[in-house]
């Protein structure tokens, strides 16, 4: 594109030239079309259920243009590395030839301006945990001693144990509380969304946890979803962040509800000047997803209900009362033999 512009500038008469006379958009549109149409990294979204959707969007791949090939990648590339901690999930990866080459982003990880993954830590000063949260890249993390999220804390917010289990330069060590500089923000920081939905994950064998995390994504939505009796507390966040539920844009009172539409009269203090003061939500009814499963939103509010901003007002596929509900609770009866 740059070369073409320079050529045309050299040829053309300088008076009343317009930008569209110089720039040819064909190479740009061809590159964009090639990426979205035929690139390995532009994929058809896995829409079986809300979890498979959000997991697909949080996937990290070492394959594709400019990356590795399955045949060339050795054991070192695929293996779990200390710098994965809080950035890339050590559990969720496919079984088979792609193992370790396709990974999932950890729960609280984010990309920084240079494209490196960062994970949050709470600052610790003189063995007292502060409210300050810093995002550290793998390189920065190596300079600090970082305690685990389950370290014992007294009422004043100080580390109370004589020795604290911590990490320094990828090694797990025991240190005195005064030497600790940072602390994990949460116990689920290490794992991905799918792995963090497994209750009592720490009691599972890593291979079975991997299979469980991968197989939850294949659950077909139920006709009557049912919230899990035993959960991990992240189900509501997954349902909301996957975009399958409908959230109230403003607080207010529900004026009208039917199967396909919810009307909310916005609170006076939240209504902006010049706006109608009424929010209308049209729900998605019986739509086919990419995987031919059923996407259908159902209102969970009634006329006269008061809702706050960001409250869930309609369930989507595989959600129940705003929580992710992939399966059914099983009632098991035990009978004594004798």
TrEMBL record:
Pfam families the UniProt entry points to: RNA_pol_Rpb2_3, RNA_pol_Rpb2_45, RNA_pol_Rpb2_6
EC number: 2.7.7.6
Keywords, ordered alphabetically: DNA-directed RNA polymerase, Nucleotidyltransferase, Transcription, Transferase
Catalytic activity: RNA(n) + a ribonucleoside 5'-triphosphate = RNA(n+1) + diphosphate
MF terms (GO), sorted A to Z: DNA binding; DNA-directed RNA polymerase activity; ribonucleoside binding
Organism: Glaciimonas alpina
Top-level taxon: Bacteria
Gene name linked to the record: rpoB
Entry similarity comment: Belongs to the RNA polymerase beta chain family.
Any GO BP: DNA-templated transcription
Name this polypeptide is given: DNA-directed RNA polymerase
Every DNA-directed RNA polymerase beta subunit external domain range: 121-186
InterPro entries in the cross-refs: DNA-dir_RNA_pol_bsu_ext_1_sf (IPR042107), DNA-dir_RNA_pol_bsu_external_1 (IPR019462), DNA-dir_RNA_pol_su2 (IPR015712), DNA-dir_RNAP_su2_dom (IPR007120), DNA-dir_RNAP_su2_hyb_sf (IPR037033), RNA_pol_Rpb2_3 (IPR007645)
Residue ranges occupied by any RNA polymerase Rpb2 domain in the UniProt entry: 43-110
